Amino acid sequence: MKISSLDRRLSRRHCFKTPLRVRVWKSPAPEETTESLNLSQSGVYFATNSAIREGETVEILLNMPEEITDEPSIAWRFTGHVVRVDRVDSTWGKMGVGVQFDCYEVSRAEIPAAS
User: Fold this and answer.
1) Residue 115 domain-assigned?
2) Which of 77, 48, 80, 45 minimizes the C-alpha distance to 64?
């Protein structure tokens, strides 16, 4: 199978809307609750009103769906870097943020429902 040079994904992307919490690493800004627009084993794409920039390190807490891990859905904490930022909703000013996961740990924290 030939992969396009524009498609650099390491794993299959799933269109899951799952609640997540995100914060910029070592930032005084508060954590934000939002939801994923799509998700894979190697990254996540979500919409936010926060000023997150490409290249920043972020921490993300979410319940990784069983369809991705082949394990029951539990909370995972990821550290990753922002690889993409683009406008997804010009009316509300939301930005789409793509994050590539660098490392993770299984967490016991509860994930709140997205508002």
Assistant:
1) no
2) 77
Percentages helix, strand, coil for the chain, rounded to the nearest 5? 5, 50, 45
Residue-wise pLDDT for 64-115, tens only, equals 877 766 676 678 899 999 999 998 876 667 899 999 999 989 865 555 565 5
- Which of the 8 DSSP states describes residue 25? T
Say which CATH number the domain at 72 has.
2.40.10.220
Tokens of 25: 């690493």
What number is the average pLDDT over the span 14-35?
Answer: 89
Q: How many domains does the chain have?
A: 1
Select from 59, 15, 20, 57 the least CA-distant residue to 39: 15
CA dist 76 and 6 (Å) reads: 29
**Residue 79: inside a domain:** yes
- 40, 32 Cβ separation under 8 angstroms: no
The gap from C-alpha 108 to its chain's centroid, in whole angstroms, comes to 18
